[in-house]
C-alpha cells in the first residue's frame, strides 16, 4: 500500500515537471498534458517494454494516466504557484525517483532477470520519463547535462534492491525501503551540498609568443 502511494506521488511529481517544461516552451493545453502525462508514466512504460510485460501496466490500468493528466491540468492553470514551490517539488521528485528506481528493480527481480539487468531496469524506470520529456521538448536530456546527481542515486538504489532481492533471503520490502532511502537521501544530499560528477578537463589555451 505504501509503495503504491509513493508511486502515485512519483507519477504526479514527474508529470508536474513535464507540464512545467511545456509551459516554459509555450505549448498549448494538449501539448502540456501530453508532455506531462508521458513524463509521469514514461519510465514505467519503458520498464514494461524491456521486461516484455504487455500491455504496459500504465496503459492497462487507468489510474497512472489519470493522475499524470490531472496533475498536468493543475499545472496548466496554476503554474506560477508551482514555480514558487520549486524546492518542495524537488524534494518530492527525489522521493519519486527513489521509489521508481527501486520498484522498477523489484519488478525486474520478480521477472527472474539477473541482478545486473534488474539494476539497469530500475535506472531506466527512474530516468526514462525525463528523457522522453526532454526529447519531446527538443532539449538536451537532463541526464546528459552536468547537473546535480540524479542517475547515480537511482542506480545505487536500484542496485540495493537487485542484489539484496536476488542474493539474500531477506524480504523484498526490506530492500525496497533501504534502496529508496539510499537513492532519495543521496539525491537530496546532492541538492543540498551541490555535489556533481566531474566533467572532462578543457585544454589550456596556449600563450602567444
UniProtKB/TrEMBL annotation:
Subcellular location, principal: membrane
Residue ranges constituting the Glycine transporter domain according to the UniProt record: 5-79, 91-163
Q: Where in the cell is it found?
A: Cell membrane
Q: How does it sit in the membrane?
A: Multi-pass membrane protein
Q: Please indicate if the UniProt record lists Signal as a keyword.
A: no
TM spans, by residue? 6-23, 30-50, 62-82, 89-109, 115-135, 147-166, 172-197
Keyword terms: Cell membrane, Membrane, Transmembrane, Transmembrane helix
Q: Which InterPro entries match?
A: Gly_transporter (IPR005115)
Please report which protein family the annotation says this sequence is part of: Belongs to the UPF0126 family.
Supply the name of the protein.
Answer: Trimeric intracellular cation channel family protein
Q: Report the source organism.
A: Gordonia sesuvii
Amino acid at each position: 500500500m505504501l509503495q503504491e502511494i509513493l508511486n502515485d506521488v512519483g507519477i504526479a511529481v514527474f508529470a508536474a515537471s513535464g507540464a512545467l517544461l511545456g509551459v516554459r516552451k509555450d505549448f498549448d493545453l494538449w501539448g502540456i498534458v501530453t508532455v506531462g502525462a508521458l513524463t509521469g508514466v514514461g519510465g514505467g512504460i519503458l520498464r514494461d517494454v524491456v521486461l516484455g510485460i504487455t500491455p504496459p501496466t500504465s496503459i492497462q490500468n487507468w489510474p497512472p494516466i489519470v493522475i499524470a493528466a490531472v496533475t498536468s491540468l493543475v499545472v496548466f492553470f496554476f503554474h506560477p504557484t508551482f514555480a514558487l514551490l520549486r524546492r518542495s517539488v524537488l524534494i518530492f521528485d527525489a522521493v519519486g525517483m527513489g521509489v521508481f528506481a527501486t520498484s522498477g528493480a523489484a519488478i525486474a527481480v520478480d521477472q527472474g532477470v539477473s541482478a545486473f539487468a534488474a539494476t539497469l531496469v530500475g535506472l531506466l524506470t527512474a530516468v526514462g520519463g525525463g528523457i522522453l520529456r526532454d526529447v519531446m521538448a527538443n532539449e538536451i536530456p537532463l541526464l546528459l547535462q552536468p547537473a546535480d546527481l540524479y542517475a547515480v542515486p537511482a542506480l545505487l538504489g536500484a542496485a540495493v534492491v537487485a542484489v539484496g532481492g536476488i542474493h539474500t533471503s531477506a524480504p523484498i520490502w526490506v530492500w525496497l525501503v533501504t534502496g529508496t532511502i539510499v537513492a532519495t537521501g543521496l539525491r537530496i544530499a546532492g541538492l543540498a551540498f551541490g555535489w556533481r560528477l566531474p566533467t572532462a578537463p578543457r585544454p589550456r589555451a596556449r600563450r602567444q609568443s
